[in-house]
Amino acid sequence: MASTADEDLTTADAAAPAPTPTPATDTPADTSAPAPGRGPARSRTLLLAVGLVLAALNLRPAITSLGALMKEVKAGLGMSGTLAGLLTSVPTLCFAVFGLAAPRLARRWGPAPVVCAGMAFIATGLALRPFAGGVPAFLALSALALAGIAVSNVLMPVVVKRWFPDRVGPMTGLYSMALSGGAGVAGAATVPLTHAMGSTWKSGLALWAVLAAAASLTWLAISARGRAEGEAAPAAGAARETSGRSITRSTTAWALAIFFGLQATGAYIVMGWLPVIFRDAGVSASTAGLLAATTMVVGVPIAFLLPRLAARLPHQGILAVALALFGLAGYAGLWLAPKGGAWVWVVLLGVSNSAFPLALTMIGMRARTGAGMVRLSAFAQSIGYLISIPGPLLVGWLNDRTGGWNWPIALMAALMVPQIVTGVLAGRNRTVEDEL
């Protein structure tokens, strides 16, 4: 997997932005970026901003809407807890596998057409999966939607740096907030909307295809406008800016990959299983969905502020420790009084799950060059998502075997310890280029 990532990322340099003097925020001007102040350029910038937000809004509803209706889906499809755990692991598997294809696809077709295709895959998968009939078809169509999410997820930073080279920080913050907001809204609104329509869980899951269809049409317009304006694809012979040595030789790259994987494990367990934990504790379905959504909504302002704070610190390990302590407190409360203090626990867990924007920020800070950042990002995310695959599956298996949630919650809390260790290692002030 690591060698594949290295091969893909050297070819992905063509789709990557120019070298960044300060990886955290600054990116030199790109000739393909729209120049502000001109009428056509201003309208194109607005279209791109709308497309960026719409794409980000679609990167989590396929997952969080399923979590809100998991009990109904399990009953409707006749799934065991272990199989439902497998279903919650599918997103991370797809992110790891299909995300590796994104750089090559972008090099061949350009980022905008690939994001457009990704949004179309999401819309198709979400619209068809509830009505396909049977667990295999449901899983296959879920994988189709998640493949679209995976390639779009990887290319969003490329889109930001390519078309907003002088506004990387604000646009990254906007993208992160839209991603968290989309996750939260889907988790909170799926059950009430299903009831309001007088529909079954099938319609409740399928309705999010409408949002993805709107995003695909927007990116179709962006792609068509780029072709009409004769936008050139990046040169295939872009210079390699990092050593030819494998990135697997970097201890910082491994620390980031493991940290990314552990925070993703916690996030997808929470997205997939937290509503079920609350419902088994006696909370209504709509309230359980709202509680789960709160963990994501809490992260919206944090996703905007945390990268700026991290960039000002010489060592980001202290932030990794602080976020993990919030998670430990949340899991302790979930163990002791899941229903009584539910709103407190979800806020604590929402703060803890903000480790995701911290991981992305550290990826940018641990590389000096654009090519180095792309290599590190793909390695950390692909390996990280592979690491996170067993977590949701283990939670479902432990719940089946024990008939309760004490052992699954203990597992979630235990994972905070290695997350602290790797977060401290990843937060050290060094770059992968120096280690290679």
Report on this structure.
By secondary structure, this protein is mostly helical. Helix content is 76%, strand content 0%. It contains 22 helices and no strands. The chain has helices at residues 2-12, 39-57, 61-68, 70-77, 81-99, 102-109, 111-128, 135-163, 168-196, 201-206, 209-228, 251-280, 285-297, 299-312, 317-336, 342-352, 355-365, 370-388, 390-402, 406-414, 416-426, 432-435. α19 packs antiparallel against α20.
The major sheet is characterized as:
none
What value does the Rg take, in angstroms? Answer: 21 Å
Elements, N to C (H/E): HHHHHHHHHHHHHHHHHHHHHH
Oligomeric nature of the chains: single chain
Percentage of β-strand residues: under 5%
User: Could you tell me the number of beta strands?
Assistant: 0
Sheet/helix structural class: mainly alpha
Unreliable sequence segments: 1-37, 232-243
On the 0-100 scale, what is the average pLDDT?
81
Distance between the termini: 19 Å
Shape: globular
Number of helices: 22
Helix content: over 70%
